[in-house]
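Archive record:
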Amino acid sequence: MSNIDVRAFLEELYTQGQANDAHTQERGQKMLNLEPETAQFLHILLRSTRRKHILEIGTSNGYSTTWLAWAASEQTGRVVSIDRDPHKHELADANLRQAGLREFVDLKCGNATEIIAGLSGPLDCVFFDADRYSAPAQVSLLLPKLAPDVFLLADNVISHPDEITGYLKALDELPQFEKLVLPIGKGLSVAYRSA
């Protein structure tokens, strides 16, 4: 796919996700896709800083994963993306194939905290976009697996402030990281440690 095709595909995928979410009350069946401006910001950030070893927690239908993989593909990098829902795992697989980016993604289905415990590093970017309550435990498991030059990113800081408090507290205990919250989409926490 060309860049224009990937962008058009992503617009279509986002529209499908929105339509799905409007027609279901069941939270587990919602796609809860990243806001397009947040996704595009991540894409620009990761491309411009040449991230090659990206972990995403919360794949859903692969909308944000496609943005991340598109950025990683320019560095022949890889994305590991985790989701516990087998149906969403299959959707993400199909969508990444359609975008021509499947070869850049290692999809893992299961409990994110357990999967993280078995991952090896070094990771130069981690994007938290799933169960926010597990994020603090995941941060401590990830610390020894992070590259010296690393981004820790998390969505929904403004939309779900109570749920993300534990994650933000865990970040505050990492003094070597510079931290800020960007009022983009639903609120993006950006933490960066330079080598």
Q: What stands out?
A: The chain has a mean pLDDT of 93. The beta strands are 53-57, 78-83, 105-109, 123-128, 146-154, 178-182, 188-193. Residues 26 and 167 are 25 Å apart (CA to CA).
